[in-house]
Every structure is written in C-alpha cells, then in structure tokens.
Amino acid sequence: MPGFALSEYRRLVVKVGSALLIGEDGNVHRGWLEGLAEDVARLVADGHEVLIVSSGAIGIGSTVLGLNKRRARLEDLQAAAAAGQVQLVHAYQEALSAHDIVAAQVLLTPEDTENRRRFLNARGTLAKLIEHSVIPIINENDTVATDEIRYGDNDRLAARVAQLVMADALVLLSDVDGLYTADPGKDSNATHIPEVANITDEVQMMAGETRSEIGSGGMATKVQAARIATHAGCSTVITSGAIVRPLEALAAGGKCTVFSAAGSPAAARKQWLAGVLEVRGELRLDDGAVTALRNGKSLLPVGVIEIVGNFRRGDVVTIVDASGNEIGRGLAEYSDEDAQRLVGYRSEDIEAKLGYRGRSVMVHRDELVLFDNER
Ligand code: GLU
Closest ligand 1 atom to the C-alpha of 60? Predict the structure, then answer.
C-alpha cells in the first residue's frame, strides 16, 4: 500500500518547516498551527508520543524586528531568532493548551547531540518530558550557534533528535510532497518517488544541492536527515504540510516519500554501542545486578562491586560479572571518581555521597548492550 502507516509508529518526531508556520504577513499562521495541534492531540490520545522540531524563529523574528531576511547579517538573524522564538513557542503553547496539552521549549546546539556527556543530559530531560506527557517544541539555539557550530537546518537537527530519543518515525513536513527524480520546479519530466529503500549517492543527487539560505534546507538536507534517522532505526517520511491537517492527511495515505529503517532504534543503538572501540573502564557487578540487567533493568550503584579505569560521564565501559566474565557494555552515567564513591550504595544515598543530586542509575538500560545469553 502506498503512503505511510503513521499509526504503527509510537514515538514520533515531527519537523515543521518555516514556510508552513509563517503566514503571508510574516507572523505565525494560527489557523494552520491549530490544525497541527488538533492532529497532535489525536495522536497523543491514540497513545503516540510526539516531539516537535519547529523552525520559524528567524522568520517571525525578522518580521518583529523589521529585518530584510535576505540582506540581514548573521548577528541580526540571531537577534531575530531570539525575538521570534518566544513568539513561536507561545503560539504552540496556546494551540496545544486548547487540547489540555502542555508544551515545553527545548533549544539545542550540535554539542548537545554530538558530545556524549551532553547527549546524556539532553536525552534524560527529553525522556522526562515524554514521561510527563509534555510536548517538547525543539529548535536550534540560534542565538548562540555560530556558523561553525550549528546544525544550520532543522531537518538534520530533527534527525539528531530522533536518534537521541530513539524515535520510531521522523515526519518531515515541508512545502513539497516528497522526493522527485529531478527538481520538479525546473524539470517537467520529474516524477515523484513514493519509497526509497536505500539512500544511494544517486538518491542524494536527485535531491540536488543544499540551499545555503538560513531557514531553508531544501531537499538535500531532508535526504541527509533521512540517512541519519534510518541508520538510527527510525523510518523517515517527507510529505507536504501545506494543508490544514497534515498529519491526518499523511495517516490517511497522503502523498509522501518513505525511507524505511531496516532495524529498530534499540537494535541500532546496541549495534553502535557494541562497535565502539574506545572502552574506558570496567564495572564489576554482583549476581543480583546481573540478573536484573538480564531482566531489562538499568544498572544501579548498589549492584556494582568494583570499578576499574578512568572514565568520564558518557564514556563506554565494559560490564563484567562477579567472576570477571564480560557480559556487556554501556555508557557510564558517572565518572569513575563519582562512581567509586557510589559503589554498593542505594540510589537514595547518591545526593549525600556526592553532594549533588545525581542520576539514579549507573548505566541506563537504553544505553546498555548485553552479549550472549541475552534474554
Ligand atoms: N532554526 C531556524 C529558525 O527557527 C530554522 C532552521 C531551518 O529552517 O532549517 O528559524
């Protein structure tokens, strides 16, 4: 069946492009946003978890500050982003609150997804927001991100977010309804591609060049985003959002291009962990902890009997059983020094031991891979 089976994917990252959100007057297109909020509310009611990555801060801010976006300099655009972001999030908050849904603003820089220490922080916070049924409205922190250290476009940011939260699907809503064999604006023979099995160089070529103007990634960055997300086990779909209820239309079989992921996000994460070459330390566990891990639990400090090596939060450590047999590996939530102080203690004692309110686990179950005998 053509189209995209949205209902089969539980955790969704929806990316909203500026062109959809900003009306002709340069302000938030409220009617459109209300439709999106309605779609999101229905998805939430059906048991989906939704995260939104939204562009538009620079566009709205340019209207507010009276800037000509094409002639403005980077600093002006950053100032515009600051002014526009507050309006953007406020508009989402209003639209979602009509459905009794709470919105939260999350601004990220590439450091937050590429650096493993920061990655654990961003991931932990997003996981909590999802747990509290809050919808994160995510954008790049344009105010501080300069050219060398920015994602630059929200397509790739959305893919990184999808990877971070182990989303099952990434929906890229834009003003085009998918990938074509050539640019349909320039070539009348261009045909729509409903499904891409492999993102080959040829596919990337069809998407053309990345447009450099801030706020418009173009098709090339969407295909790059699909590549990042599908490698992380997250299926990706490009569809037009230029209709009143875009997600409903997509679920009803709307025109789109689907990039299916081969495995699940959990499998991709474990494969990545298993393949990391730099292992910095070792945690030795008692038998109870080994059993708990095999039953799908996180590793708590109380189950650790010995710590070896020098590692920092976010580094990969080997996990061994009481007799020293390697049973798996994972990302350490603590440095070796802090971990040392927590050995054998219960999670409730962490604050007293460290002097700050730390994380309750030593290794989170999502950041853990167990070898052989995995049940
Ligand atoms: N972060 C930019 C904004 O909010 C958008 C970047 C993009 O559209 O890709 O205006």
Answer: 10
Task: List pocket residues of ligand 1, CB cut-off 6 Å.
Answer: 18, 55-59, 81, 139-140, 142, 153-154, 215, 217
User: Collapsing DSSP states into helix, strand and coil, what is residue 269?
Assistant: helix
End-to-end CA distance of the chain: 35
pTM: 0.88
CA–CA distance, 34 with 263 (Å, rounded to integer) = 34
Question: Which of the listed residues 142, 143, 146 should we mutate to test ligand 1's pocket, taking the one with most ligand atoms within 8 A of CB?
Answer: 142
Q: Write the DSSP symbol of residue 300.
A: P
Which tens digits make up the pLDDT trace of 143-200?
887 666 677 789 999 999 999 999 999 999 988 899 998 888 788 888 999 999 999 9
Indicate the CATH number of 6-263 among 3.40.1160.10, 3.30.565.10, 3.50.30.30, 3.90.420.10: 3.40.1160.10
The pLDDT tens digits for 98-112 are 999 999 999 998 888
Using CA atoms, how far apart are residues 37 and 222, in angstroms rounded to an integer? 23
What CA–CA distances, in Å, run from 151 to 112, 159, 229?
11, 11, 15
Alpha carbon of residue 359 to chain centroid: 21
